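Comment thread on ticket #2218

A.B. wrote:
> Attaching the input chain for the structure job we discussed in standup.
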Amino acid sequence: MANIKSAIKRNKQNIKRRSRNNFFRGKARTFVKRARLAISAGDKENAQEAVKVAISALDKAAEKGVLHKNNASRRKSRLMKGLASLE
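C.D. wrote:
> Ran it. Output below, let me know if you need it in another format.
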């Protein structure tokens, strides 16, 4: 355990940030997984809606700095590619 006041504060900040990062990363992962499942099931309407929600979650995660913007962009691109393969 830290003894110095600034180190104690830094530990508290890290805990808060880790919690926030896990929340946004988990949300993005969940929605991406749902979108992939909808795409693999071949359900066009559900897939479109799921991809839309997943893209929004990825954008939010990238905006918060949880994911790198290029990482989010790559994942969105792959989802759109999968969605296009249904048509």
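A.B. wrote:
> Thanks. Noting for the ticket: The chain has a mean pLDDT of 96.
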